[in-house]
Every structure is written in structure tokens, then in C-alpha cells.
Amino acid sequence: MDNNTLDECRAVYLTAEDLRLAASILYNAYHDDPFFVDALSTSDKFAYEQKLRAAIREELNTLWQEKQALIGLFHQTRLVGVACVVTQKVPLGEGRYWHWRLKMLLGTGWQSTQAIIRKESSILELLPSKQCGILQFIALSPNEQHKGLGHQLVQAVVSWCDEQPELEGIGVFSAQEAHTRLFLMHDFVSLGELNIGSVAGQLLFYTSQQDE
């Protein structure tokens, strides 16, 4: 993708009409994600894919209902990337609402729901304060990889963070080296190694660069 095409991309908040396509982008991007492969573990490929769809659908709907930041990267009118940030204004980890737990339980099962809760709790323990967000999802459409759009999407996230006066920064769990390198290029730093289930990774953190 050339620079002119990159210039035609814009980052805006998703609308309700965008959620179905956003869920599809996230599903394809996270299909082989180490955390979900571990958390939704099953020998049945079809069952795994059903559980992954349910987990993404429920989390996306919850973030929408809670008015969290759902950022879409558009090339002209086409959605090509998605980033979802949740702040601690929404109960996370062990504080998750019962209705979220019930829907996630029905969609993914007890063990998978508990694994998601443990992941969030582990991240929260390492964040500097309660005024920090978590980057829950970030993904590009499969056909949009290796075009420079990943940098634009991460930059959209950090720019959004810089504009939130109550937010001190954003944390993200990264278990893949290529993803870690991308975040580090955008001023994320490692807060330390983190093992979630059988998956080893790092908790990366971006500190808000708000104007004085």
C-alpha cells in the first residue's frame, strides 16, 4: 500500500452498523491467538471456532453497551482494522458483571470464562493505577496485513489515549514477538513478563502524553 493510500485511511469510532464486520475481522485475526487457543482449548475445531465467535461477540457487545472506545480504521468507506480499549470504569477481572459471566459461560464454558477473568486480573495487578485502560483487541483484515496499516491503527490508539484527561495510559498483553515490536515502536514499554495459563508474554504499557 503506497503513501497515497495510507493517507486515505482514517480512524473513527465504530457505529452499531459496523459491529458485525468488526467481529468478523477480530475472529479472523484471533483465530490462532495463543491465549484463545489455550483458554478455549478443545480438540474439536468446530467447537473452538464457535467458542471464539461467542467470546468476541459478547465482549464486543459489552464494550459497545458500556460506551468504551471501539476504534475503526477505514480505507475510504471500507473497514480494514479494529481496536477496542476498555477502561476501569467498567468492572473487569473478578469484578465482571454477573450477566457478562452468564453470557460468556453459555458461549464458551466455565473454564474458558474463568481463563478470560484470570487474564484480566493478571493485567490489572501490573497496571500502574486504576486510571489505566486495557487494549482488549487490535486487528486488521487478513488481506490488509503488511501494508503499514498496523502502525496507523496503533497510532490511532495512542492518539486517542493522549486525548483522555482521566487516563494515565493503556496496557496490552502481547504473546507474539512481531506484535511486541510493533507496540515498542509506538512508545509502549514492558512492565514485565506475564504468564497467563500456559502462554508466556509481556505486559506492555503506553503512558499518556497529554499536553500540560
UniProtKB/TrEMBL annotation:
It comes from the Bacteria. Gene3D superfamilies: 3.40.630.30. InterPro entries: Acyl_CoA_acyltransferase, GNAT_dom. Signal peptide: none annotated. Residues 73-179 form the N-acetyltransferase domain. This is GCN5-related N-acetyltransferase. It comes from Shewanella decolorationis S12.
